[in-house]
User: What shape does this take?
Amino acid sequence: MSEAKKEIRVATGDRAILPEGTKLVPIFIMGKQYRVPETMTIQKAVEYAGYQFIRSCGCRGGICGACPTVYRIAGDYHLHFCLACQTVVQADMYLTQLPFFPANRAAYDIEKVDASAETIMKLYPEVMKCVACNTCTKACPMEIEVMEYVNAAMRGDIAKAARLSFDCIQCGLCSSRCPAQIQHFHLAQLCRRLHAKYQVPAAQHLKPRVADINAGKFVNMLKELVAGDEDGLRKLYVDREMEPQESSDWQPQDKNFL
Ligand code: SF4
Ligand code: SF4
Ligand code: FES
Assistant: This one.
């Protein structure tokens, strides 16, 4: 194997590939051109270009919302929005990432509010300024009907707002585009909290489990885990009992922590 091959192994997803035979495409990261393998996600391409993430990267799996990205393709006026960890690069992509988007979160005591339009108006009065442009929906990388959940919240249909916003990962792209300056993801979180608190039946198994936690039932187990070495923890993980896919009454053999 040549020195070049040894040096420049790069990862694309879970596969290691060699740059030889892999097409490189030009992309522009914060205005500077780099040539990166065409199979890479934006996130991996940014690292391939030499950057190290200290923000704008978390789960790498489309769940945490840390990697919202804005880009245009040369010659096309459209502005595009995506998650860097979920989007493969394209030639002549001009991109930048949004490490954080400021949005004020209302302060409230969940015990002292109710699941109503009045609560929404009081805590997030700016929802009334929505002009129904649907820009928020177009910006959402999770394909959520953002305008629909804002409108449902405005009408006091908290259950619908909670359901529609369930996949929100709080990336902030919707709020970055809204002409009414609405803070969608905090509003959505309020709706889901109100829905869970006041509209769905309480989970009966939760109370005894919280009591177990408060009584310290898991303290020793956690101490053992913290004291364990890496090999031991890996073995524990590999050997763990798994709940079968098709099962309604499965119980682990070790019932110490049930
Ligand atoms: S971007 Fe703002 S104003 Fe436009 S539909 Fe969405 S919430 Fe309403
Ligand atoms: S609703 Fe807004 S904050 Fe939530 S995932 Fe979509 S764009 Fe991101
Ligand atoms: S790194 Fe978590 S969603 Fe992209």
